[in-house]
Amino acid sequence: MEGLSIKGRNYLGYEIQIDNDSSDEQIIDFLQNHVVKNFELFKNSILTIKLDSKRETGAIINYLKSHNLNISAIFANSEKIENNIEVPLLNEVIKHPNSVVFKGNLRSGQTLESDDNLIIMGNVNRDAYIYAKKNIFVLGTLEGVPHAGFQSNKDTFVFAFELNSPQIRISDLLAKAPDKIKNGSKKEPEVAFVENSQIIVLDYKEWLNYKME
Known about the structure:
This protein is of the alpha/beta class and about 210 residues long. It folds into 2 domains: about 5-80, Transcription Regulator spoIIAA (2-Layer Sandwich), CATH 3.30.750; about 95-210, 3 Solenoid (Pectate Lyase C-like). Helices cover about 15% and strands about 35% of the residues. Strands 5-7-9-11-14-15 form a 6-stranded mixed beta sheet. Strands 6-8-10-12-13 form a 5-stranded mixed beta sheet, with no helix packed on it. Strands 1-2-3-4 form a 4-stranded mixed beta sheet, with helices on one face. α1 (about 25-35) packs parallel to α3. The longest helix has 11 residues, at about 25-35. It is elongated and about 50 Å long. The model is unreliable at about 180-185 (pLDDT under 50).
């Protein structure tokens, strides 16, 4: 269907591309025929949406959620996106002038460092280490070790589409992974941040609500 497409990103799952001319009905029909009917292909993949311009995204995201498919983030060419669902809108982060952006997967044994925000558009494998003076954003699965605010900045956080790190460091604090098993059937963005001198990990939606209290 013209104006609607799905592109595979070897470092970032699948991106659903939506232009401004497609109606909600056309989008839902496209998702039904190309995504929902191929549920086995997409169920364990990271899914993102790319928009050309201003659009209300709630109906699209809710439709996919009703079929057990979750959108991890939204990328948009316009800064004015009517998004009434708590899904990260990541354009402002990626456009930050001093951020280091790495596109690809970070392999075991590799290290990456930033004097500002660090944005990794891919996966960070186990035994890879990432450091940032400010925030860390992993637009993929994080299984390595992140260290945000590594020069004593506790007002920083670690964001990941899927957070499976054995340990998380923020400033001079350390948190080890809780004793839980993630089966990979649910892709929910998570945020690790500091509160009362402890590192707390919350789902992205819970973190938003927590910070607004």
